[in-house]
Amino acid sequence: MLAEELAEPLRLLRVSMKAREAVIIYAPSGGPLRVIASEPLGNSVFTSEEPVRSNIQWSPVAATARHVRLTSLMRPVSLDFDRALILPFADGHGHGEVILGSAAALDAETLATVRRFARDIDALRTRVHETRHRDLDRAYRVVARAATSDVSLDRVFDITLAAARNLLEGDVAYLSLPVDDNYFVFTRTLGINTDPFRDLRVGSGEGLGGAARETGHPIRSLNYEEDRNLRAAMREETRGEGINSALAVPVRDGGNVEAVLYVASRRPRAYSEDDERVLADFANAALLGLDRSNLDESRREVVRDQERARIAQSLHDDLVRRLTQIGFAAEELEYQSTGDSRSRAASISASVDECMSLVRDELRHLLQSERASECTLEDVAERVFAVPSVSGMSRTADFSSGGVSGAGMHVRVPADIGEAMCKVGQEAVFNAENHSKGDRCSMSFEVHPGVCVMSVSDDGRSFDAHEPFEGHYGIEFMKREARKVGGEVRFDRTPSGGLSVTASFPIGSDQAVSS
């Protein structure tokens, strides 16, 4: 992002000018004024790209000013400078100002510094713009390649979400499709932790996605929980998921909205008009190119899944309640009886426990019916590495059969285990590419009787040597997804300071090898 590229040169400028704080504001031609960088970074009032209003009119002449105020147009915050040095600049795309609070006096050397800084900003803007469009073109190609191959539609959706999240450098991404004339549901999610959020049904006009459907235009929110422009917003579920800022774009086919694609951040993030254009272009090109019959079948599958879940939940609640009542009665009879009667009561109680276990197993099969029962480790690696690296980090995958005969990459694992491995692997690779600043990311599999161990490590600097792992959303997400299928995840630091993620999954001692 431009803010990250500008952070160090802005810091050097602030220090050299003996200023307490520094802000760069910029108004592209025909666009609103916005903050593009600020220093010190940790004390910034505004987020990158947040639109603001200044009480000082732009002038091409550098000057000192008193009582300068920048006010956010998205939320009730402002930044005041009692005394500031205003250093204007302009490029081929718009104009802006560097505002230095309580800075040293203005002189010829300062003006020369600002001119150099303005040229640096223009060059950085051009480079960031070109990089984003290269990333967008690469994302188009990878989704198109998947859509025209024989992979499942769910796999195409996964690749689409990963590409969207990478493009906007978000924390999570999710896709909603209609289940009837009014409601959309989240068909696929990436990085989402909580079931209440996954299970949301979004009506027209409700929340971010409902507003995008109703207006037919992208909708963004800096702070979802406090955004009073949203009607019937799902604030509790969104707060529970830890989402702060979000952007939703409708995928339109003529006058109909066929889907809504979301990218969201767990930290305050002012998504810009350029973010809207990039995500909308990508979503419409990627999703409208899908085969119509496959998309319709995906919608029907969503409806079937919801109906199976409703029936299973209803059966579970009813049967478990009745069995629990029988169990309590049997236990009471057991305590009050002696001899054969007590033995028979104990037998009834044991049968109730066994029956409840069988009911849960049958309901699990009901929910998983019509789905693939197995996948290979090669499938897992392909899904994890499906989206090209935005950072340019090299990737490698290594398979070891361990105690299982045959080639490791062809070892089959249960579908639910494979799904959990994909989610953990995708999150680990995403963290490596977006936070480690490393050059290489490696994935390895070791298969032994009854267990498969997957490792993802990087050679970067993901964490400070004394920083605890716990509490990071990505790490908590990986732990939760592994636990759902009886697995566990361990996190270690590599010698360089990078992160090594080691996940162990139960696969059964008799896992077959595909032909």
From TrEMBL:
SUPFAM superfamilies: ATPase domain of HSP90 chaperone/DNA topoisomerase II/histidine kinase (SSF55874), GAF domain-like (SSF55781). One of its GO terms (cellular component) is membrane. PANTHER family: NITRATE/NITRITE SENSOR PROTEIN NARX-RELATED, OXYGEN SENSOR HISTIDINE KINASE NREB. Residues 152-300 form the GAF domain. One of its GO terms (molecular function) is protein dimerization activity. It holds the Pfam family HisKA_3. It comes from the Bacteria. The keyword Transferase applies. The keyword Kinase applies. Keywords: Kinase, Transferase, Two-component regulatory system. This is Histidine kinase.
